[in-house]
Amino acid sequence: MKIQQSSLRVLAVAAFLLSHSIGVLPYSNPSTVYAQLGKPEGLYYRSWAIIIGVENYMVAPPVSGAADDAKQVAQVFRKLGFDEVVEINEKDAVHRRLHQLFNDVLPRKVGRMDRLVIFYAGHAGAAQDADGVDRSYLVPLDARINNATKAVTVEDLKEFTRRSASKHTLLLLDAPVFGWEVTAHQPLSLEGRLAPEADTDRRAVQVISAAGKGESSSRIDGKSVFVEALVAGLSGAADVDKNGWLMASELGEYLVKQVQSTSKGAQQPTSLRIDGDGDMVLIEGRTAAFGPGGDSHTPEERHRAAKSHYEQAFAGLQQGKPAAEALEHLTAAITYDPTYGDAYVLKGYLLLDAVPNLEEAFVAGQLAVKHAPANPDSFYTLGLIEERRGNFAEAETALLQALKINADYQDVYFSLGTLYADHLQDQAKSVEAFRRYLELGGVHARARAAVSEADRSTKVSP
After folding, report:
1. The pTM is what?
2. Domains plus CATH for the chain?
3. What's the CA gap between 137 and 96, in Å, rounded?
């Protein structure tokens, strides 16, 4: 992958890293499902909170304080840094608008690497399904409690979560909503570690309901018991082990205990994972765990922090952010873990042209081959650096070592072809390298021209 024009080097970083562990796909506007093809800079591309509070019903008794509860919850999610906090006030919470929201708007808008929280405060009703099983439904502004005709049923919500592309979905329901199927017990996330990475990578649909069948959502002094506990939990109280991370499963466990205690057992919340085996992150603890002046951590934790900075550097380059910003992340990655070989690879590559510093690039290249000797990009990058420094024999040695690790590394063959032609004056080896490059699918005009010329010369020779 040697790019001849120096101005194109940063644009080629994504292709450059295709040969190792991070898959690369083009980055685009994350506002639609199909645009999110790459990996986000952090855990999610976008964070959505849809807040629905219905207080003054048209044909049902009011739910005192529901509108204020919804505003309070919306403010909490804004403080948590959610990108889209959409408040659907009661005049808009009619059945047609809610069905449009779940059947059309959210499936179109929410992407595969997003997190989505839906909060509802209002009435819930119950009716038997076709199998005679009691199931709940949410009551829109213009619906009756005892009539499911205009309702948003549990089946509607389950169908929505199946259709939604979001990586993590959490339903927070301040109402007695039941009728979910959970086929197997899903254990809570492992807490007390730096980051529950496996949980955050896997899909999950989670539900926390304020009360169970036959119960009501309690209010004390006009305030919802569930919402009071929810706000406290999202403000940090639910992070019981104080590891800096707040997971949806952890919040659910906290709310069950708090609401049961406050209501003296009259209200039994439920916390379920109804699809997938992942877990939503509500508060990410990386910044707290690795802030300036923080305590020392285990080698595993420092490696995780290094990996995070490396991935932020890579994602930033994909999004067109300055190379200097990526270098800051790479420097931080190396600070946390001086043996993180891939960080040296990318750092050396950027220092070659994007933020030119040939001597620092050379140091990074040497450390790359030291700490990531099984990565062909380590030797490929060092070869490019040695060539720029005028050490052509050393460049050849490094490039050939890259081929020992990956004999089908197309870009290395192209770089060898130009090295032999421009500096080592070995036309036969140059053509051989270009030919192999083309056999592997390369399309560069220089390689095609060199091989074609060599073939013509062979045909006319006696």
Report:
1. 0.56
2. 6-23+297-460 (1.25.40.10), 44-283 (3.40.50.1460)
3. 15
